[in-house]
Design goal:
The N and C termini lie far apart (about 70 Å). The protein is about 70% helix and about 0% strand. With about 210 residues, it is mainly α. It is built from nine helices and no strands. This is Transcriptional regulator, TetR family. GO terms for molecular function: DNA-binding transcription factor activity; transcription cis-regulatory region binding. It comes from Methylobacillus rhizosphaerae.
């Protein structure tokens, strides 16, 4: 019975986090209440407070759960560093665009992340996430340069920024507009990403200025 009770408690916690994603995405962190989240999860407010001490604690747990699901995939055996960089970009593009926990939480972090007191814990999480992503991309860029897959005089900061901009642009086109038919969007995304990579490798504007 104790094991079942623990499993039920864990499931209740997951249901509360699911509800928090929906409610905060709909209402914003400043206007969402613990009562709203309890109603959406079909539990009592006491049950919510039994798992989370306040809204900030709940929102942080919501974000940490989602970003834990967004771990960088392992490198495909035999893949070049540039191909790994491309595969990881496509992986995160799907993760951030397809409906689900990661997509909802990233939308909360990036679209609703206005600087105010309620958002401070989420802004800190967003900064840590950004820093981690930049570090991982920088490490791959440096490895590609060392292996001769990228020019030795590449400006690493500009190259990193270029890849983020490429990602953001394709994501915005897929997620925020109707420019691409639903059934064609991933084929189109891969074409655009490949084209962007050709520019990434060859563009003289991304070289260090002497």
């Amino acid at each position: 019975m104790a094991r079942k009770t623990k499993e039920e408690s864990l499931q209740t916690r997951e249901n509360i986090l699911d509800a928090a994603e929906r409610v905060i995405l709909l209402r914003g962190i400043s206007y969402a209440t613990m009562a709203d989240i309890a109603d959406a999860a079909h539990v009592s407010r006491g049950a919510v407070y039994g798992h989370f001490k306040n809204k900030a604690d709940l929102s942080v747990a919501m974000c940490e759960r989602a970003l834990a699901l967004a771990a960088t995939p392992e490198r495909t055996p035999g893949a070049s560093i540039l191909e790994t960089l491309f595969e990881q970009g496509m992986y995160f593009l799907r993760l951030c665009t397809e409906p689900g926990t990661v997509q909802r939480v990233l939308q909360i972090l990036y679209v609703q992340g206005d600087p105010n007191k309620d958002n401070e814990p989420l802004l800190e999480i967003r900064e840590r996430w950004e820093h981690q992503c930049r570090q991982e991309i920088t490490a791959l860029i440096r490895s590609a340069m060392a292996e001769g897959e990228l020019p030795a005089d590449l400006d690493i900061n500009l190259a990193n920024l270029y890849l983020f901009s490429l990602f953001d642009g394709i994501h915005s086109t897929l997620f925020w507009t109707n420019r691409v038919r639903q059934e064609d969007r991933w084929q189109t995304a891969e074409i655009l990403y490949r084209a962007g990579f050709v520019a990434f490798i060859k563009a003289p504007q991304l070289r260090n200025r002497q």
